[in-house]
């Protein structure tokens, strides 16, 4: 292959890579602001009660993997310091012998230093079950945040709208989207969302 052809091929590869990253960032940003509620309930007599629901990811070993570490950190930074917050960690034994929720909790406590209120949901094996099983744990919250990779969190919010529209009205945005953060994870999550949408049409 001649040098000019190599240069053109390299340039095309760079343009394609930049386009893929830009698309993934757009999907992530857009997903993080969709399917939110009409407004969280406000309370004047006490702090607003907030539930931050973190959706787990398959984890084979005892230590949280890269994706679960990101999700926990995103959940922790989503906590409103002015609210009475509870961290709700979801996930059963999908890929390993230990529930994902337990692994998430250990990472939050031991490695992130979280000392606040925490509740575990350890039976679910799918996103639908995550949301369904979390409902009894979040019913009393005035504001609800569902946190994961942004496209996955959007699916969780969609499921809550189907299962409990009254609770979905209390949905507010989490803080999972930050420009330039965990770009490889964003690309995978955006592609998975595309596959999920295409499959849903069948």
From TrEMBL:
Query: Which top-level group of life is the source organism from?
Result: Bacteria
**What's this protein's name?**
DUF218 domain-containing protein
Q: Organism source for this protein?
A: Microbacterium pseudoresistens
Q: Which Gene3D superfamilies match?
A: HUPs
Annotated DUF218 domain residues: 50-153
